[in-house]
Amino acid sequence: MNKVKLFVDCHVFDGNYQGTTTYLKGIYSELIKFKNIHFYFASYNTDALSKIFGYQDNITYIKYSTKNKFLRLLFEIPKLISKNKIQYAHFQYVVPPLKKCKYILTIHDVLFLDFPEYFPLTYRLKNKFLFFVSAKLSDIIFSVSDYSAERIKKHFNLKEILVTKNAVDEVFLQEFNKVETSKRVKEKFSIENYFLFVSRIEPRKNHLGLLKVFVEKKHYQDYKLVFVGNKAIPYEEFENYFESLDDSIKIKIKFLNNIEFNDLVEITRAAKLSIYPSFAEGFGIPPLESIACGIPTVSSNTTAMCDFYFIKEFLFNPYNIDDFNSKILKALHDPKEESILSEMKKSYDWRESAEVFYKRILK
User: If you ran DSSP here, which 8-state letter would residue 155 be given?
Assistant: First the structure.
């Protein structure tokens, strides 16, 4: 029996770690176990890819000649697909316009259409066009949550979108020594006894709301606040509020960016509390990662996060500072980590998502 040839655009591994990186790493770590598929993983930094997926008979690594996304999509990928006689090619959000095989597309969210106030006009216009055209060109479409799948179907008038849910990297589920981990994090990053928010910085993520709760409810008297993530979209209101704070409060707030994955794991493990206050998400992986580490976790109850039934006691209205604060206090004093972790593992498993993917392409 001939193997199915599947090309995977892995250019996201060439930049900072993000949700699409987690998705591809998680789902393909399971999919490569199916030996009747030959995987062609393509990126500029193939050394990084090989460290993740290893060397197996059913894996071929292809090095892109350029990091330029336009040259890659318009010219290089179609040539590679033809050269290697690829049958399926998998992309995130946007596909090449010159179609040389069947396309698999994962659209993680269309939040810019549901919440336009958080995105620049040029961003909305460009991505609406690109996502729509890519969806129409694709033979199979996936998304990462029931919420996102329904919104994508509505906006683009699509009939079928299958859900391949995000899960967490296995490393977050490994046992660790809290004391030793906290010591290492303190020595390397000068932080301890802190609230943690992992996300790129932009208005819809609601960094401002978390900062206000931290300041106005005086949590700075007992804890520090750590933001992990790069700036993505201008967030003037947040920056102005931070600059208005007294220096005695500012020193309790730490910004970390360009963090390596292994450091992120350590920082998550050492946190006192993980907080995810976002107004709008297509999924929301960081809450699952902190839960996997046994860290008390609270999250907003909007969009895709309302699916996190296992922390329903710790979901809050991000527009209500008192509800927000009450869930923080509840998590600090009654975290229920073990029962929450057990329920989370039942609901989010890369093996199940890989099975959905596998069955669809062999349909």
Answer: H
Q: How far apart are CA 124 and CA 134, in angstroms?
A: 15
CA 90 from centroid of its chain's CA atoms: 18
Answer yes or no: are the C-beta atoms of 215 and 250 closer than 8 Å: no
Task: Decide the pairing of beta strands 162-163 and 102-106.
Answer: unpaired
Burial class from Cβ neighbours inside 10 Å (0-12, 13-18, 19+) for residue 3 reads middle
Using a 10 angstrom Cβ sphere, with 0-12 exposed, 13-18 middle and 19 or more buried, the burial of residue 16 is middle
Question: SS3 of 16, please?
Answer: coil
Phi, psi values for residue 114, rounded to 5°? -85, -30
Q: How far apart are CA 152 and CA 156, in angstroms?
A: 6
Q: Max alpha carbon distance in the chain (Å)?
A: 69
Is beta strand 194-198 parallel, antiparallel or unpaired with respect to 224-228? Answer: parallel
Rounded-to-integer distance, Cα 354 and Cα 238, Å? 39
Q: Are 266 and 181 in contact (CB under 8 A)?
A: yes
Predicted TM-score of the model (pTM)? 0.90
Pick the closest to residue 309 from 330, 274, 282, 339 (CA basis).
339
Interaxial angle between packed helices 321-333 and 207-216, expressed in degrees from 0 to 180 and rounded to the nearest 10: 70
- For residue 61, the cross-strand partners are 41
Show the beta-strand stretches assigned E in 110-168: 140-143, 162-163
162-211 tens-digit pLDDT = 999 999 989 999 999 999 999 999 999 999 999 999 999 999 999 999 99
Contacts of 220 (CB under 8 A, 6+ apart): 214, 249, 252, 253
Two tokens at 264? Answer: 């992120």
pLDDT in tens, 88-130: 999 999 999 999 999 999 999 999 999 999 999 999 999 999 9
Query: Alpha-carbon dihedral of residues 18, 21, 22, 26, nearest 10 degrees?
Result: 180
Encoded tokens for 76: 């290089």
